[in-house]
Specification:
single chain; 100 residues; alpha+beta; YaeB-like fold; 5-stranded mixed beta sheet
Length: 100
């Protein structure tokens, strides 16, 4: 079954913030980070239930090369990306998005 993928505004903001930070570190690095996130999202689309739930119904796929996780919730008709977070950040920040 093909589910629609939704990237919540908060996750889009996470992504923009990270891309800007990586671009400040090295030219083109933000684009490489974006490619890694795109690959993670493609994996989520193909196999949404492959990752175990880590908090309530939320799941996480890690990006390659960058220490980020793409956090998402699988519903009957859609997949909602709720956060794109650095793995060392306080998980309570993205968990609040599941609770809220």
């Amino acid at each position: 079954m093909s589910r629609r993928l939704i990237v919540r505004p908060e996750a889009e903001a996470d992504l923009r913030e990270a891309v800007l930070w990586y671009d400040q570190q090295k030219q083109e690095l933000g684009e490489e980070f974006l490619d890694a996130v795109d690959d993670a999202i493609a994996s989520i689309r193909r196999y949404p239930l492959m990752q175990p739930a880590i908090y309530k119904d939320a799941r996480r796929t890690l990006t390659r090369r960058f220490p980020y996780g793409v956090f998402y919730v699988v519903g009957p008709a859609c997949i909602s990306v709720i956060a794109v977070f650095h793995t060392s950040r306080d998980p309570k920040e993205w968990q609040a998005r599941v609770d809220g």
